Structures are given as C-alpha cells and as structure tokens.
C-alpha cells in the first residue's frame, strides 16, 4: 500500500514537492529556532563560571551582571578603591579580579584589570583562558586582545594601537591618545571575552589621567597609609569578581558586602543573576518559538489543502481501488500514509537543510551575528519536535482520510467526475 | 456446469430517505459459467443492483447470494474480501490508475486478494509474466504492456481493464457498460475477446448495458424492467 501511495504521489509530483518544501522550511525554522535557543542559552550560561560573587556599586543585579560580564551598558556608579582594598582583604576571599570599564576602542569594550584576570577568570565548565599568541601584559601600556577583536581589527602580537579617552575630562598627561602594544591574543571562547580588550588598571589610569606617575607623585594625596607599597592606579572600579575559599560562604559574604557601611555596594551571585536575566529574555525566545510553531502549522495546513484538493480528482482512483477489493480502511490508510510520507520527506529535508546551514554557515554566523551554533546531532528535544511534526501531520491527514473513507463508502463503484 | 453464481431472492432495496424501494426483484438466478446480458435504461437501478452484487452496499439477509455466500450476512470486510478474490469489475471507462503501467494495473488485481495470488502461484511463471501474457492474449503488444496507462487508447485501456478483471481467475466478472466508450468495431472485438477469456476460465459474466443490440452474443438477456417491480422499474 505504501508503494501505491508512493506511485500516486509521484503522479502528483509538483504539488507533492511544493508540500514537501513547505514542510521542510517550517521544520528547518522550528528546529533552527530551538537550536539557537538552547545553544544560546548554553553559551549564555557559559559566559562565566567559578566566580562566586560579583561586587559593584549599589545597582540592580542585571545591570551589574551585564556590565561586568557582558560589557553591555554603562554603570552610573562605581566603587572606590578603598572599598576594593577592604573587600579583597575580607576573610574567606581566595582571589579577586578588579575591573574598570567604560572605555571602548572601535566599539570594543576596554577592560582595565590585572593579571589575576587571566589566572582566575573561568568560563564554560571551569575552563581557564588560554593564549592563542603572546602572553599576559607586564607593563602599563600593554594590552591583551580577545580573539574576535584581534581578527576583526587585524592586530597581531607586537602591533600598536591607540586608545583615546574621548570624554574630554581633565587630563594630566600631555596626550589624549595613548599607544598600547599588543602582548597577547586570547583563544576564542565563544563568550564576551572574545570581544574585549584587556589592559592593566595602571594603563587605564594613564588614559584617564588618574594615574600619577612617579615623577609627580607628591602632588597627589594618598588617603590610606598602608597603600604606600601599592600605588592606587585608578580612583574607582566598576566591579570586582570574587572567588571564595568556600563556595557555601557566598550567601553570608553577599550579605556582609551588601551591608557595608562605608559605601553602598551590591554583591550578586553570577549563576542566579544569569538565570534571572535569561528569564527576562525568554519572552523573546517564546515569541520566536511561537512564530515558528505557526510556520509549521502553515506548512501542515498547506499539506492538508493539497490532500483535500486532490481528493476530488482521485475519486476515480478510489473507485478503481474499491473495485479490486480495497476496503474503505485501506483508502483511509492510503491517505494517511501519503501524508506521512510527505511529512517525513519534508522534515528530513528540513533537518538536512539545517545541518547544511550549520555546517557551512557556522563561521559566517559567528562572525556576523556572534551566534555560536554547532552541527551537533539532534537532541532529545529536537527529536521530539520532529516527532511532533510527524504526529501532527498524521492527525491532520485524518481529515482528508475520513473524507475519502466516506466518499469510498458512498460512491462505491460509481465514478463521479 | 453445476452451481449457482448469483442468486437473488425476494430482493428489496431502498436508499435511506426514499419512500419506496428502488429494487424489488422476486427472483433471479445466474449459473456458474453463464454469460448474461442485463439491460436497463439509466436510472433503472442497474448500478445499485451491481453494487449490491459486488458487495459495496449491503442488502438484507437472505436476499443476495454470490457463490453461495449470503452477502446480507457478511461484514464490510468480508464482502470486500469476497470481491477481491472472486469478482472482477470492469467500468465504463477510466478503469486504470494512470500512473501505473498496463501490466502494473493488471497486477493490482492480486494486491488485496490472497486467493488470486494463490491461483497465480500455481502457475509456473511469475505474476508479471502472467499479467503480460494475459495482455498479449487480449491483443496488446509487448511494448504496450510497459506503457503508462494514460498513454493507451480507450480501446486498449478497456482491454487492460478486462485483463485485470480476469487476472487470477475470479469466478465472476461484472462489466458495467464496458463498451459504451468504444466504436462499433472495437466493441464487437472487445466482446469477442472477453467471451473467449471467460470461456477458457469458465468464468461467469454479468454484462450490463443499455444497448439491446448486443443481446444475440449472450446465453441469456435479461431486461431489468421485466424482473424489477420496484420504483426503478417504472422509469
């Protein structure tokens, strides 16, 4: 019977192919959206790991997370250097990464930090940053580039570029533009690290004119006595990433920092904040998913239309089949198997198209949209979407199949044209 | 030849919603191997009678017997099975699935019929070979048997239809105005061929037409209006 259904479909090639194409495109879209969603979520969750607390001036957790991890948006407030020195000395703090944000170079965020960043920052499943070329900065005017920055700006280790502090603030230095030398380029991580430029805090201080170099040290008044050995490179920090000796203490430490009396501070746990942020983004994700469900429905309705339209011209065929002893249920099954074949072919072609796009377009997508998608085998969710399309196709085909069944019973052997 | 192929006893049939029965036939018997012409004007209930005999529609119990089966007492499935196994049906036209070749159309006859397959298996040659032989007997050329049905002339299509009806040696062939789309020459030729094939297999032939001039070819000619006292008989 499958053979008959197949031969009959082959007889209606053009409408069959159009139906298959419609289903293929809708399957491509549905599974593509699902893949973008899950892999984006994975990439998203992979942006930071191993950090127990992020500390900044009092602000919302999403804002602090966005600026410190994604380098999106500007923080209105910053925390003072004194607070930083207080926090990093708190008992239980294993390591810290200071971050000063707010500048950019050709649209890429410039992050002032220290060498601890390269030692302690982890992404994905506790993966450490690695250098594709060069090494950590060890002078004020050195810089380390994220993979994408280096690629797009065509900078190599040893090249120089200038960071201009465009705010027009009071500058103690002679030049507004400071040349920096690239000492290292990081391996691609698929996280915002790829799109950032890392320079020493002191380097940022130079750009901002906050760092008072040794020759005019006297003109600046140090407020804290014990900092004599360590010069204060910038006035303020945007955020500090903290690693604790014992992760279980994060909650208590968070409270301790949130209630710090000298200055209003916020401490957030990156995992929770990421989940919160993702939840706000899930509205778009749901909208996207809904649209692709609607596209699938359109594709399947197209199939339904094609099958229903074909019934009229196939009454002759049905009468012939009835005359050779095919029961009405066989006619029913014929239409269901036709729909199943159309849907199966459509979904298979759709999945193949998806893999073709992922395989050949992944680099382009990453470069132009920052979407990191991989042509990995279908996940269980994706398989169940495929299954859902097939099941929906079969259920929908019950409508024309039922019509054909009724026709077969009523027409019998008379051929109505 | 002993045995009855078709037997009607006090048949009364009326469509749902009709005020009086379309068919009321006190008695009709057709023996095995007999070739019978059934004549009736259109609207006289011919098609309804054929669909009752073919088991498409269901008569009441004890009214229609085919090969000693009481069709009124059989399920839809059983009647479909009986038709697949023992009844070959030829339509006026458009008998074939246009997308299959001539011989594939003939092979369709055994698709739903284990009995026909069994009878075909008793022969030495393959099913395809037997289908092609039958088509050659009915006057198609070797190359015609491989051509898609829609490329054949109407006369050739009717022969393929006859071959499909005969394939696997069913006991009864019902031909519903099979020659009305053919011109006179082709018509006589087709009837001759059909007769020969039926004689060779001792197949009962129920040939329905509105054309009384064909009567001399047959063992017996029945006028539907003569035996039917239902409403169909008045038209």
Automatic annotation (TrEMBL), chain A:
Keywords: Cell membrane, Membrane, Transmembrane, Transmembrane helix. It is a multi-pass membrane protein. The keyword Ribonucleoprotein does not apply. GO terms for cellular component: plasma membrane. It comes from the Bacteria. Residues 290-406 form the ABC3 transporter permease C-terminal domain. Residues 17-204 form the MacB-like periplasmic core domain. It is found in: Cell membrane. InterPro entries: ABC-4/HrtB_transporter, ABC3_permease_C, MacB_PCD. The chain crosses the membrane at residues 287-311, 332-360, 380-399. PANTHER family: ABC TRANSPORTER PERMEASE, ABC TRANSPORTER, MEMBRANE PROTEIN. This is ABC transporter permease.
Automatic annotation (TrEMBL), chain B:
One of its GO terms (molecular function) is ATP hydrolysis activity. It comes from the Bacteria. Residues 6-235 form the ABC transporter domain. The keyword GTP-binding does not apply. One of its GO terms (cellular component) is plasma membrane. InterPro entries: AAA+_ATPase, ABC_transporter-like_ATP-bd, ABC_transpr_LolD-like, MacB-like_ATP-bd, P-loop_NTPase. Keywords: ATP-binding, Nucleotide-binding, Transport. The keyword Protein transport does not apply. Gene3D superfamilies: P-loop containing nucleotide triphosphate hydrolases. This is ABC transporter ATP-binding protein.
């Amino acid at each position: 019977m499958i053979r008959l259904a197949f031969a009959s479909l082959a007889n209606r090639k053009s409408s069959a192919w159009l139906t298959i194409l419609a289903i293929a495109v809708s399957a491509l879209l549905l599974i593509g959206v699902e893949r973008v969603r899950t892999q984006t979520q994975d990439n998203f969750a992979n942006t930071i790991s191993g950090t127990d607390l992020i500390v900044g001036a009092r602000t919302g957790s999403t804002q602090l997370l966005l600026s410190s991890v994604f380098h999106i948006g500007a923080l209105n407030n910053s925390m003072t250097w004194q607070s930083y020195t207080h926090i990093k000395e708190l008992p239980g703090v294993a390591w810290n990464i200071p971050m000063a944000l707010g500048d950019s170079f050709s649209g890429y965020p410039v992050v002032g930090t220290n060498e601890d960043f390269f030692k302690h920052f982890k992404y994905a499943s506790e993966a450490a940053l690695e250098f594709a070329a060069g090494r950590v900065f060890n002078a004020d005017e050195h810089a380390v580039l994220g993979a994408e920055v280096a690629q797009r700006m065509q900078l190599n280790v040893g090249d120089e570029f200038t960071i201009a502090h465009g705010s027009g603030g009071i500058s103690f230095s002679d030049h507004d533009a400071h040349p920096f030398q690239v000492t290292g380029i990081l391996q691609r991580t698929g996280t915002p690290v790829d799109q950032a430029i890392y320079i020493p805090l002191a380097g940022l201080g130079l750009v901002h004119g906050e760092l008072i170099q040794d020759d005019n040290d006297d003109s600046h008044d140090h407020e804290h006595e014990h900092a004599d050995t360590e010069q204060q490179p910038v006035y303020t920090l945007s955020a500090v990433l903290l690693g604790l000796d014992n992760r279980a203490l994060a909650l208590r430490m968070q409270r301790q920092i949130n209630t710090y009396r000298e200055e209003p501070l916020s401490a957030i746990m990156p995992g929770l904040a990421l989940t919160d942020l993702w939840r706000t983004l899930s509205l778009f994700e749901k909208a996207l998913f809904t649209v692709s469900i609607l596209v699938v429905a359109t594709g399947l309705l197209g199939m339904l239309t094609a099958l229903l339209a074909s019934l009229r011209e196939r009454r002759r065929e049905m009468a012939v089949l009835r005359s050779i002893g095919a029961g009405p249920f066989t006619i029913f099954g014929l239409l269901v198997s036709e729909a199943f074949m159309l849907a199966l072919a459509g979904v298979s072609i759709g999945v193949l198209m998806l893999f073709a796009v992922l395989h050949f377009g992944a680099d382009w997508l990453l470069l132009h949209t920052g979407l990191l998608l991989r042509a990995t085998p279908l996940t269980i969710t994706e398989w169940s979407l495929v299954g859902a399309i097939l099941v929906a196709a079969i259920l929908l085909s019950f409508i024309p199949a039922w019509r054909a069944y009724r026709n077969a019973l009523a027409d019998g052997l008379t051929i109505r044209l | 030849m002993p045995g009855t192929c078709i037997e009607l006893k006090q048949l009364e049939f009326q469509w749902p919603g009709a005020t009086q029965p379309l068919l009321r036939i006190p008695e009709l018997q057709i023996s095995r191997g007999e070739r019978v012409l059934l004549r009736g004007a259109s609207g006289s209930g011919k098609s309804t009678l054929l669909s009752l005999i073919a088991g498409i529609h269901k008569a009441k119990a004890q009214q229609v017997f085919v090969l000693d089966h009481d069709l009124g007492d059989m399920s839809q499935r059983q009647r479909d099975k009986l038709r697949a196994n023992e009844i070959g049906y030829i339509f006026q036209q458009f008998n074939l699935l246009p997308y299959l070749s001539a011989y594939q159309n003939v092979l369709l006859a055994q698709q739903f019929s284990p009995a026909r397959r069994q009878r075909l298996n008793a022969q030495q040659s393959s099913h395809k070979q037997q289908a092609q032989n039958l088509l050659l007997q009915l006057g198609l050329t070797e190359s015609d048997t491989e051509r898609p049905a829609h490329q054949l002339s109407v006369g050739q299509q009717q022969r393929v239809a006859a071959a499909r009806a005969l394939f696997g040696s069913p006991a009864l062939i019902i031909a519903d105005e099979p020659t009305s789309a053919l011109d006179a020459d082709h018509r006589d030729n087709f009837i001759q061929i059909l007769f020969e094939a039926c004689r060779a297999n001792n197949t009962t032939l129920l040939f329905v037409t509105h054309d009384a001039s064909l009567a001399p070819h047959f063992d017996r000619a029945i006028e539907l209006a003569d035996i039917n006292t239902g409403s169909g008989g008045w038209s």
